[in-house]
Amino acid sequence: MLDNLQTKEQREAFIDRYDNFLFDCDGVLWEGNHVFDNVPESMKLLREKGKHVFFVTNNSTKSRVSFLGKFQNFGIQATKEEVFSSAFATASYLKNVLEFPQDKKVYIIGMNGIRDELAAEGIRSCGGEEDAGLFENEPIEEDPEIGAVVVGLDTKVNYRKYAKAYTYLLKNKNCHFIVTNEDSTYPQYGSFYPGAGSIAAPLITALGRRPDAVLGKPAQNMLEAIFAEYGLDPKKTVMIGDRLNTDIEFGVNGGIDTLCVLTGK
Predict the structure, then answer these.
(1) Pick from 78, 68, 70: which is nearest to 34 by CA?
(2) pLDDT tens-digit profile of 170-188?
(3) What digits encode the pLDDT tens for the residues 76-107?
(4) 3, 19, 26, 103: which one is catalytic?
(5) What pairs with residue 214 in β-bridges?
(6) Among this protein's residues, is 103 annotated catalytic?
(7) Whole-prediction pTM value?
């Protein structure tokens, strides 16, 4: 049933209905460096009522530790264990599902959040922000140690990164092609800019193949990790987000209730 929470009584009944609240971040709690009105107070209210709060974000630009700094700056209580990001999901997937070999490393198109989460799992990486700058059409050296290419949101993406990623995926046998999420856009400064899905699109086109894995919402790996870690009751859990094709689909596919807010997209 589709409900529209307009009155105070409806909102209070909604809160009382659930024990566990999963929140998207960008476009739901904040936009860029601006926290939405009443968000810190709402988070505090949920905790005072004994609710469990988790943050499930496709934003791979920051590590969970870095996210904690942002939460603190906005006056929102959070622990690292409550934050589930696509960068963390990617690192966990490489370590626990693929059992990524120690003699291999990951090439990154993305920001330091991916690098930091990989390092936390003991996985070597290269590229990322280190490969920022202009490409002078120099030859790309082969590197047989590259065992995976991970693509996420990258505000410093350039031709050098695409050329290297393409080369490794084309020439390195069994090189895994992983995308942190396929959001086409993300909200910023009252507008929308290209998201991780748009960053990955040129590489998908050049290779003529889909990624081997896409790990952010609406994929279920983050939800499964939360349920496994905390033993949550799906019937008492709700996902709150702003995108129908990621956040809401994530909840629906996971068999939990959803709430779509209109602050993002």
Answers:
(1) 70
(2) 999 999 999 999 999 987 7
(3) 999 999 999 999 999 999 998 999 999 999 99
(4) 19
(5) 179
(6) no
(7) 0.88
